[in-house]
């Protein structure tokens, strides 16, 4: 077998394996979508009779009421998994989020709703509303944008609370990803985005990584969040090639870890907020956003590990809470897999077209060679016959 044929067959096997992986992703997303529909809960309330509902933060909980965090995560997940924006689940989930906004325009978790709005919960709520086609000019989104801009710290970043002087990468990146999706409706929107962008750039470590906060050693989830924040601000992915190299060199084996935010309450007590980072999902998102080759074995391994964490084709297991079905694990896993699947479908079409063109070029080249050989044989005999017909014996 010729080397070119061997290369072609190897390439065909690689593409066939990736398309099989794509089919596994589609199956996983379909199963997750069915599970999310089944875990929807109507909200118990009295009033105008218009129903709202959503999801609790942990989907297996049958008694607890739906929350903004759970509902926001699942709306975004459902959109990525293929749910119609016009479905009743989405409509009622949007209504729940809008109804649970605080007077200051932000959103919070149930235990803190009477005290503070929280940056990350507000960003989740706004992202879900935007994903579900809530107009960015609507009151709920404009009020949320206003809260985010007012919550920005003097240094340009965002912390977990408004003006808390504790800017961190995750909160800042989430805020930028939401703000850049809204239309100008606040006089400080553009300035706020520019300041947040500058904060992310200034807090990058010398090795091209980011830690949780300025000066912290690099960690992959924070790098991934920072990448999405910068890309949302219009940074060219090609300029972040050194960041991609850092990610490739620092992917841990399926690590999952918890961030703790401590909130001081007016009565002097504190409450600890937990944010779990899923490194496989974050690694895959970062690499795809930064233009990594879809055929890379690294990406294939990450997809395989994420698929392996799905339980019975329904939800994603998290090592930190192994018996739960967290809504935030659903959204991270589904977004990562959807991004890979979209890239695979796009690149698959490009590869198929490239192969068709290459095969056509090979066919044309083969015909050209055959024509040249025929011309070489036919031309001399034709010349002899023509000269004989003219009564010539050749050149003198």
Summarize the structure.
This protein has 396 residues and is mostly helical.
- Side by side, the strands of the main sheet go 1-2
Helix content: 55-70%
Distance between the termini: 52 Å
In the CATH scheme, what's the topology name?
A: Glycosyltransferase
SSE order, as H and E?
HEEHHHHHHHHEEHHEEH
Provide a descriptive summary of the structure in words.
This protein is mostly helical. The protein has one domain: Glycosyltransferase. The chain has helices spanning 3-38, 68-81, 88-99, 119-131, 139-151, 169-179, 189-202, 220-232, 241-249, 279-289, 297-308, 327-389, and strands at residues 41-42, 53-54, 256-264, 270-278, 310-311, 315-316. The strands form 3 sheets. A two-stranded antiparallel sheet has the order 1-2. It has a two-stranded antiparallel ribbon with strand order 3-4. Strands 5-6 form a two-stranded antiparallel ribbon. The radius of gyration is 28 Å and the shape is elongated.
How does the SSE layout of this entry go?
Elements: H1 3-38, E1 41-42, E2 53-54, H2 68-81, H3 88-99, H4 119-131, H5 139-151, H6 169-179, H7 189-202, H8 220-232, H9 241-249, E3 256-264, E4 270-278, H10 279-289, H11 297-308, E5 310-311, E6 315-316, H12 327-389
Antiparallel strand pairs: 1-2, 3-4, 5-6
């Amino acid at each position: 077998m010729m080397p070119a044929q061997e290369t072609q067959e190897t390439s065909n096997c690689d593409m066939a394996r990736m398309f099989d992986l794509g089919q596994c992703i589609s199956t996983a997303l379909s199963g997750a979508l069915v599970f999310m529909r089944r875990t929807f809960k109507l909200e118990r309330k009295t009033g105008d009779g218009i129903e709202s509902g959503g999801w609790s933060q942990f989907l297996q909980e049958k008694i607890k009421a739906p929350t903004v965090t759970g509902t926001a995560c699942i709306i975004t997940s459902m959109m990525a998994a293929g749910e119609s924006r016009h479905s009743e689940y989405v409509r009622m989930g949007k209504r729940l989020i809008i109804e649970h906004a605080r007077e200051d325009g932000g959103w919070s978790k149930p235990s803190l709703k009477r005290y503070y709005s929280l940056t990350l919960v507000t960003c989740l709520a706004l992202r879900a509303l935007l994903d579900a086609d809530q107009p960015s000019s609507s009151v709920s989104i404009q009020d949320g944008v206003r809260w985010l801009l007012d919550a920005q710290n003097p240094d340009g970043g965002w912390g977990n609370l408004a003006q808390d002087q504790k800017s961190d990468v995750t909160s800042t990146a989430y805020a930028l990803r939401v703000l850049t999706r809204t239309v100008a409706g606040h006089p400080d929107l553009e300035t706020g985005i520019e300041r947040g962008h500058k904060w992310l750039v200034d807090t990058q470590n010398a090795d091209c990584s980011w830690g949780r906060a300025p000066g912290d050693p690099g960690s992959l989830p924070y790098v991934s969040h920072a990448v999405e924040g910068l890309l949302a601000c219009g940074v060219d992915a090609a300029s972040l090639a050194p960041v991609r190299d850092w990610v490739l060199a620092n992917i841990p084996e399926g690590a999952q870890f918890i961030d703790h935010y401590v909130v001081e309450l007016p009565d002097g007590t504190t409450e600890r907020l937990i944010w779990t980072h899923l490194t496989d999902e974050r690694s895959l998102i970062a690499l795809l956003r930064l233009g990594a080759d879809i055929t890379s074995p690294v990406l294939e391994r990450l997809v395989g590990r994420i698929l392996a964490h799905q339980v019975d084709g329904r939800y994603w297991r998290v090592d930190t809470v192994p018996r739960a079905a967290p809504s935030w694990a659903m959204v991270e896993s589904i977004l990562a897999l959807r991004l890979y699947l979209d890239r695979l479908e796009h690149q698959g079409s490009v590869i198929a077209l490239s192969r068709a063109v290459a095969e056509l070029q090979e066919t044309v080249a083969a015909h050209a060679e055959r024509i040249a050989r025929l011309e070489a044989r036919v031309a001399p005999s034709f010349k002899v016959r023509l000269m004989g017909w003219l009564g010539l014996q050749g050149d003198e």
